[in-house]
Amino acid sequence: MRYIRDMNLAPDVCYQALASRDHRFDGQFVVGVTSTGIYCRPICRVRCPKLDHCRFFVHPAAAERAGFRPCLRCRPELAPGLAIQAAGIASDIPPALSEEEASS
């Protein structure tokens, strides 16, 4: 339970959602697979990993901090409810420069 301490979901519930590709859990957590080093959304269409290889995270940023990279198939870093803006950290990111500021 150490990987999902901020959630009310148990690892067995997360794994069941992953194994059944339950759309109700999309945006609630991501799963990091230790054998591949990739993290996915629970609805990803790849083969379901063994429970021993799964780590569950509340947010994609937590999975990336743990050393996982995003799946190129399901794009978990862009999932609804899990984007940077939804995480409440968008204010910490400096805005992009406008063309006028970049040219000066």
TrEMBL record:
Keywords in alphabetical order: Activator
Residue ranges of every copy of the Ada DNA repair metal-binding domain listed in the record: 14-77
Pfam families: Ada_Zn_binding (PF02805)
GO molecular function: DNA binding; methyltransferase activity; zinc ion binding
Secretion signal span: none
Ribosomal protein in keyword set: no
GO biological-process terms attached to the record: DNA repair; regulation of DNA-templated transcription
The keyword Endoplasmic reticulum belongs to this UniProt entry's keyword annotation: no
Protein name: AraC family transcriptional regulator, regulatory protein of adaptative response / DNA-3-methyladenine glycosylase II
Organism of provenance: Kushneria avicenniae
